[in-house]
Amino acid sequence: MYLYGASGHAKVIVDVVTSCGQSVEAIVDDDKNKTALHEIPVIHESEGLSPFIVSIGSNRIRKQIVDKLKGRMQVEFATAIHPSAIVSSSAEIGRGSVVMHGAIIQADAKIGEHCIINTAASIDHECDIESYVHISPHATLCGNVKIEEGAWVGAGATIIPGVRVGAWSVVAAGAVVTHDIPAHTMVGGVPARIIHK
């Protein structure tokens, strides 16, 4: 397996991958000054390599890298789920997504492609999470929550049942979301209110 992005986020994904008994052969990064990450070689060409996980925390940049890889070559994307995560047998997890230590994904939840379900995040039944979403550490999504493409739910945030968070929106850390959030909007507070669009 290969990662793209020699970042702090990559260090966590390496732990997830190795905990599953697999190995990361190399990490691709555009920064020519990077040569290794935890003794894993950092290289600067991706041609012919596969499968990949894009190990970049920024949702927008992660999407840009995925699009670049798809545009230049035939590439497969891997999924990594830490053994300590609890994932329902009826949940679906898309290609390129990672599920970190202690996360919980309940029955009939759907996780899109290239998502980050971070440490100890909780995603309850029938949640629908589109691609390129980041659910941060200790965030809680109650049942039937919809998170649209590219949205970021901050650490420790709570979203009550049935709420929709619009595409490329940001829910600030610790927020409690009690109503739908429009696309391209930042909210924060308890209860969450619009900070800016």
Quick summary of this structure?
Helices cover 13% and strands 28% of the residues.
Name the features.
197 residues, single chain, 2 helices, UDP N-Acetylglucosamine Acyltransferase, domain 1, alpha/beta, eight-stranded mixed beta sheet, 24 strands, six-stranded parallel beta sheet, 2 domains, Rossmann fold
Uncertain runs: none
> What fraction of the residues are assigned to beta strands by DSSP?
25-35%
Mean pLDDT score: 95
* CATH architecture verdict of the largest domain: 3 Solenoid
Rg from alpha-carbon coordinates: 16 Å
Count of spatially separate domains = 2
Order of helices and strands: EHEEEEHEEEEEEEEEEEEEEEEEEE
- CATH level-4 homologous superfamily of the largest domain: Hexapeptide repeat proteins
Report on the structure:
The structure is a single chain. With 197 residues, the chain is of the alpha/beta class. It has two domains: 2-72, Rossmann fold (3-Layer(aba) Sandwich); 80-186, Hexapeptide repeat proteins (UDP N-Acetylglucosamine Acyltransferase, domain 1, 3 Solenoid). The protein is 13% helix and 28% strand. It has an eight-stranded mixed β-sheet with strand order 6-9-12-15-18-21-23-24, with helices on one face. It has a six-stranded parallel β-sheet with strand order 7-10-13-16-19-22, with no helix packed on it. Strands 3-4-2-1-5 form a five-stranded mixed β-sheet, with helices on one face. Strand 1 (2-4), helix 1 and strand 2 (26-28) form a beta-alpha-beta unit. The protein is globular, with a radius of gyration of 16 Å. The termini are far apart. The mean pLDDT is 95.
